[in-house]
Specification:
2 strands; alpha+beta
């Protein structure tokens, strides 16, 4: 949940990723953007640009389905 709450705050969100963290966002290819972003430095740049690339971006109507409740903490 911390990522979802801080997605537009690059400094906070990046601390939730390991050095080899990866985003795979296949739908970005339809916008002419890379669909895979890998590595903490690359992810940080992506997160920094997110508010400029997608103004007003935020997650809505979030539903998390898991059978392992510990993953939510």
């Amino acid at each position: 949940m911390a990522y979802l709450e801080n997605v537009t705050d690059a400094d906070t969100a990046i601390e939730l990723f390991g050095d080899d963290g990866t985003f795979e966002l296949p739908y970005l290819a339809s916008l002419g953007l890379p669909w895979k972003w890998q590595g903490k430095d690359v992810l940080y740049k992506f997160l920094q640009n997110l508010p400029n690339t997608f103004p007003g971006f935020k997650f809505q109507n979030i539903r998390i389905h898991t059978d392992t409740l510990e993953l939510l903490h």
